[in-house]
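Worked example 3. Consider a protein that binds adenosine-5'-diphosphate.
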Amino acid sequence: MNVLVINCGSSSLKYQVIDSVSEQVLAKGLCERIGIDGRLTYQKAGLEKEITDKAMPTHKEAISLVLSALTNDKTGALKNLSEIGAVGHRIVHGGERFTKSCVIDDEVIKGVEEVSDLAPLHNPANIIGINACRELMPNTPMVGVFDTAFHQTMPEKAYMYGLPYSYYENYKVRKYGFHGTSHSYVSKRVAEIEGKPYEQVKTIVCHLGNGASICAVKNGKSVDTSMGLSPLEGLIMGTRSGDIDPSVIEFIAKKENLDISEVLNILNKKSGVEGISGVSSDFRDLIAAEGKGNRRAALALSMFSYSVAKYIGSYAAAMNGVDVIAFTAGIGENTPSVREEVCGYLGFMGVDIDEKVNVHVHGEEKLISAENSKVKIYVIPTNEELAIARETVALVG
Ligand code: ADP
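Given these inputs, the predicted complex is written out as structure tokens:
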């Protein structure tokens, strides 16, 4: 079966068509600037990328253009739309209600709407994408795969905040965690590679991309993760601050004459390694600047590795040990210096990285720990689209 995987943002939409048998990507691309002017990127496997400016007033036109490109006579990957057996939608926030992926019907859409106040930027965009697909492909089954679902196994002591209990009861204020599809995919892959039952491995997955989070996966279940009610909590990230003293918000608001939303916008979009360095959120730029002696770029890089190492240490304690540390996503897969610096803090737990192997590993599945390391260290490229396609087929196949 071919699965169309849709990841819909407020003004962009990423898509892939995956053959679920061979697990090959048949075509992929991106719609950008939806509601502004519109640009479609389309790439059939084995061919060059095509980029065209196309009017996309809403997500419906964007998806309609994607479907036309996919079935185009010359470069289309499909003959017609009936070759799409199902659509898998990434949905950011499932609240406490969605503990696993599910077939989308009116009830599910209502449920996603009901938790939209927890992800006001993301969930409405996801729903718009789902509705547009349902309109254009009314007879094709659709599945929702939630970023938060994998973390619903966290124990209460891990997900509760030290706030008045009524905020949890009345508003469901708690830690939810994100990147669940990636943490689940990578931790399962670790067990497969190790040849052990998923239920018998303790893994710490470090998903280090522009958005970054860490997850403690004990015996196949997420038991703690670094992001919280929103993706702002946890590690210092590309432009997000990660953990700070909440008092900073009022302090800055007063000093800079800003309201809470404006300060939060700064914490989300102008902080992190970009805010510290004043150079960029991109680790390639930071490493280049550090090489030229930029002190603040060096500081940003060292703060990042330090925060990753501290989370790994705390999650090893949370699980009373760790068998495997896995690095994934843009930085985790491609930046040996970060992996080496992070592991350098963890020698006390018997973590020993093979520096000679590590330095050459970019975007490939590889064991990078030394033979005598007590904890195995892997680089495992994540593949959230494939994970969504697999979940989709499991539910409607
Ligand atoms: P997101 O999906 O959250 O936008 P990614 O997983 O794509 O983020 O990660 C983006 C980060 O990964 C950037 O900081 C970028 O510098 C880094 N990155 C991506 N590719 C490479 C590469 N080939 N070499 C070094 N860093 C890379």
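Take a moment to read the result before moving on. The two ends are 8 Å apart (CA to CA). The longest helix spans residues 295-318.
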